[in-house]
Each structure stands twice: as C-alpha cells, then as structure tokens.
Design goal:
Elements: H1 2-12, H2 20-44, H3 51-58, H4 69-92, H5 97-118, H6 124-148, H7 150-155, H8 157-176
Amino acid sequence: MLQGIGQELETLINAEGRSRNHVAEGVALCAGAVLLSAFLAAKAAPTRKNPKRYLENELLQHPKIEPPRKSFALVWPPLFLTLTLSGLRIWNAPASKERTKALGFWGAVQGLNALWMLWGPRRQSATLATAAATLGSAVAYMNSARKVDGPAAAMVSPYLGWISFAGILTEELWRKNRDRPTIH
C-alpha cells in the first residue's frame, strides 16, 4: 500500500526517474518560495493583527462585488498548494530552455503575489499595476508550463481565475479610491 502511495505521489509531482536529492531540492525551493510569498502577503494583509493596514483598508470605499473577508482565507491555501505542485512538476521535468523559462515566470508570480499585498491600501495605483503584472506573469507561466508539462499548466487554471477576479476587485478599489496625496 505504501509503495502504491509513493508511486501516486511520484506521478503527482512528475518525479519519475528523478533522484531523491533533485526532488527534495524542488520541494524546498517551490514550497519555500510559495510559503515566503504567502507569509509576506499575510504579514501585510489588512487584518486585526495589522491594525494600521486594517484601519487604512476600512477607510476605503469597497466594491459591492467584494466577497466576505473569510472567503480569502478559504481560497488562498488550495491555490498556493496547486502553485507549489505546479512549480514542482516543472522543476522535475527534463531540463530545457522552456523549463527554465517556465520556472522564471513561476518565480515572478510568487514575488508579485507578495508585492501585491505589500503595497497596502494607500498605494492603489501601485497595487493595480502589480495586479496587472501578476496576471500577465501567470498567463506567461501557464503558456510556458503547457510546453513543458500539461498537468502543471492545468493546475494553474484556478489560480488564474481567482487572480483575474482579484484584479477586477483591485481595479474597482483603485477607481473608487485613487491615490490621494497625503502629508507625512
């Protein structure tokens, strides 16, 4: 039974024929990058644990289509998991220019995920520009991943759908609350 589970896992992460060291490096890099991105985004999120950001966010005019805050906490973990698995599948694919390109776009998506939140509620123009860059990088990643490993590309579809919606929310926030000059 354990051997069957091991084979299923090997198939899931595209690790057939790869050394344990290679797979372990991929797990560390992909999970580490996603966890760091998630940690930075969570640290900067407008929650009660971050009262300054929470207050700044409360002062914004929010779009009517914005879902309840709790839905974000439910959506992001499975999306981060699929991003990790997708990146790991690409990592475990045979070396090629397309693989390197896909990994570069995958890394860009991770960095942009964090940056999107790090701008905070007061920098709506920067947040909107980052949302657009994230969407573009995710589309580029999906396209590059498709050339390397079809299942890895397919795993990005839910993420792409969510950030498309998040981009619409970001645009609406920007439109309703354009950057206003402040005195520091």
